[in-house]
Amino acid sequence: MSALSAHALVGYDPFPDAASIQAADELEERLWDEAELLRGQFIRGKPSPAVETMQRLVRGVLTKHWPELSRKVTVFVIDQADVLAFTSANGDIYLSAGMLLRLDSEDELQVILAREIAHFTHRHTVRTVHAARMGAGAKVIASTALDAADIASKIATGVGVMDLAKSVASLSQEMLLTSGREILQDRLNRLREILADSFFRSMSVTGIGMVVKSSIFGFRDALEEESDRYAMAFIQQKQGSTDAYRRVMQRLYDEAVLDEKKFSVFYANEDRLSDRLKALAEFERELQGRREAGVPGTLPATAAAVDGPAAGAVPALMASPQTLTVAATAPVVPQAAEGVPGNASDVQPESGGAGVKPDVVVVLSSSNVVAVVPEGLEPGLPELAPERANAKSAAPDASGTEEVAYHQAIAPLVMPLLEAELEAGRYRRLMRNIERPRQAWKLPDRVRALLAEGYAATNDPALQGKGLALAQELLAQHPEDVRMWKLLGNLSYRRGQWAEAKEHLGKVLRFVPEGDERGFVEQHLRQIDKKLSEASK
């Protein structure tokens, strides 16, 4: 068998250091090349200055905490409200704007980056493709062996040949009669030659689909556990506790439980997230046990027994420091979120909002514009051109990235993303995102209108009542708020309160000029007049 195939049969070890990061064989090279094609599926055209600002902030966190990988990993922010983070074989990391909205600080951003970096440095993509191909190869071999055994059974007599057809594991020359053995051996020899010549050298069209699905929907459990283990050890090392990891995973879990439209991607899968929290509890128990026993040293960043040789060693690139500060934290048990925490009064008015200027430039189109930038934030930030993960160029200068705090960078994204969730009918997820407590910053006051609409759109009478009350409160402050008058009109219409619906929608006409919107309201009013006429008969 060729050296290429022989290497593939023993698996792919994690990269021991940044300098060693490169494709090891033709299979991995093909995956890296297809990662370039994948990039084109998510990143189209030149990124807007707004997108580059958010990417520079994330890149600054990456360079600060993983300086040895700054030449090997490229971060992209994509225009997507769903909770996504995934990594390509070549080190491209994709973070959705929706994911960034779920994070409150650079400490929490480190949690997601750590998991995705582990997928890259542990070569989870090529290991996934390799394992799938080996599984496919095993099926071919089994089919060939059973076929050969069937032939042998027809030209030979004796005990053992039919047992061979039932269990590939029983394949041994000692168990075959002479005539059957020669036929079977010939078939296997020819199959081996085919595998050596082409099996590991080909990349089928389904290959990239499998890679994309694995990256977004989650790798197999053993690889995800390996990524989790590294992220926990890294956060413990950098921050002195795993609190940030717990906050992120619990927040995502609570949201996944509430979400009306279940989505099975890894970071929105409640079963996977529940497993993360249980794994964290076990990790913390190990740390606590070491502290109580006075054992120095660290917990390994790599979980045990994953893919044979690849799991045993903790490469220098991924290794933890000599000691870890053990935090006395309580074990984590995932809790199903009940209701929606917090209340609308927690939302901060725009005019004094945590240092964020109220006059922001909001850019969101059908193209790949994902971020919007508070005016005046661009100067002083370094340029960051996307680069191939194995490029030899110097690492981008991260100076100046800390001029933009996380809450300042994420604030302009809030309204477009929450609007997208409202339009998608994910009302409880919208409520969760608006009402949950945040670290050191609050949402702009205008999100309360979205919250009112989310309440009113549900089928829960209690939540509809909250939407009604909030809309009335907002109208008391802004009597010309067309959006809230329409909300009251539509809510009254749904409840069969025709007179109230006519009154509320009639006020909309005072503030809406001629055009499609006015025509729509007038049509709705005609329907209400018909309902009133029928009711009076």
Order of helices and strands: HHHEEEHHHHHHHHHHEEHHHHHHHH
What percent of residues adopt helix (DSSP H or I)? 55-70%
Could you list the spans in which at least 5 consecutive residues all have pLDDT below 50?
A: 1-10, 151-179, 195-206, 303-316, 319-334, 336-402
Shape: elongated
With strands numbered from the N-terminus, the spatial order across the biggest sheet is 1-3-2
The first-to-last residue Cα distance is 89 Å
Strand count, sense and barrel status of the largest sheet are: 3 strands, mixed
Number of strands: 5
The helix tally amounts to 21
Query: Rounded to an integer, what's the Rg over CA atoms?
Result: 29 Å
Helix/strand layout:
Elements: H1 3-9, H2 26-42, H3 49-65, E1 74-78, E2 85-87, E3 92-96, H4 97-101, H5 106-121, H6 124-155, H7 161-166, H8 178-199, H9 205-217, H10 221-239, H11 243-258, H12 270-293, H13 309-312, E4 360-361, E5 373-374, H14 406-410, H15 414-423, H16 427-435, H17 447-457, H18 461-477, H19 482-494, H20 498-511, H21 516-536
Parallel strand pairs: 1-3
Antiparallel strand pairs: 2-3, 4-5
Helix pairs in contact: 3-5, 5-10, 6-8, 10-12, 11-12, 15-17, 16-17, 17-18, 17-19, 18-19, 19-20, 20-21
